[in-house]
Design goal:
By secondary structure, the chain is α/β, with parallel strands linked by helices. The protein has 8 helices and 11 strands. Helix 2 (26-34) packs across helix 7 (201-223) and helix 6 runs parallel beside helix 7 (201-223). The longest helix has 23 residues, at 201-223. Pfam families: Sulfatase (PF00884).
């Protein structure tokens, strides 16, 4: 596990990139890495490997609410590393000095109190504002952006998202940036990455292989602007017939086991 002093990073006003690969299973991410299908991520992740973690939510909305409240995916073991960020706890609780403590109802407000500009580049429709629930997560940011071509039915969604994210990062550099990107390519439908097949474990792996180059371009583009804390993880996984289960919102290892990585680059 990588130990990162997020509190010092934020006090110094350095950039933060938080990417969620929507619905990406841990076993898919691990297999793609071992097969050499995600070389850009392989060159960035600590040790060239994903950590296996457990998500606090089984579908997009509760997982992200938890993330922005300070509860990132946890290791499948009793011992946990210090949290990257945490809402101000009760007086009796001791917090690691490397944890960024925000005295606010969520991370985005807390970062704003420290001068950060918080920006969301949405992917799945929970970030689209098309429905009342679809306005909850984007409404937490200073700025939020979503277009139909950012969503999973578009085969080149990650390229569109990354191009937009880099354009945003290049503007108004007078404030430190918290940039959040919800990558939709790994969310169903992704059968088009295997010639319009049905959605499956294999087509999700193909979607991740597609997204790899663009995610590498995103991180390379940002690091040209300074030092960044980068967090990459899935919000939850997806069941493709495992033990008879399909989809999300269920407590099954295919859904609860997610890839996770964090680093300063």
């Amino acid at each position: 596990m990588t130990m990162i002093d997020a509190a010092e990073h934020i006090r110094a006003g350095r950039g933060i990139l938080f990417v969620t690969l929507d619905s990406l299973r841990y076993d898919v991410a691990r297999a793609a890495m071992h097969a050499g299908d995600t070389p850009r991520l392989g060159g960035l992740l600590p040790g060239g490997q994903w950590e296996e973690r457990r998500t606090p939510g089984t579908f997009t909305l509760p997982a992200h609410i938890a993330f922005f409240s300070g509860f990132l995916p946890k290791l499948p073991q009793p011992q946990q590393p210090p949290r990257l960020w945490e809402c101000r706890p009760p007086a009796f609780k001791t917090v690691d000095p490397g944890t960024f403590v925000f005295d606010a109802p969520n991370l985005l407000v807390g970062l704003g109190q420290h001068g950060y500009r918080t920006v969301c580049v949405g992917g799945v429709t929970y970030f689209s504002r098309e429905t009342p629930l679809g306005a909850v997560l984007p409404g937490m940011f200073d700025e939020d952006y979503w277009r139909p071509e950012f969503c999973s039915p578009e085969p080149d969604s990650t390229r569109y998202q990354v191009e937009h994210a880099l354009e945003l990062a290049g503007t108004r550099q007078d404030r430190p940036l918290f940039l959040f990107v919800n990558v939709s390519a790994t969310h169903v439908p992704h059968g088009h990455y295997l010639g319009n097949s049905s959605d499956s474990w294999a087509s999700q792996a193909a979607a991740l292989a597609y997204a790899d180059e663009h995610l590498g371009n995103l991180i390379d583009g940002l690091t040209g602007l300074g030092r960044w804390l980068v967090i990459l993880c899935a919000d939850h996984g997806d069941a493709f017939g495992d033990d008879g289960y399909h989809g999300r919102g269920i407590v099954h290892p295919a859904v609860t086991n997610v890839p996770f990585a964090c680093m300063v680059v």
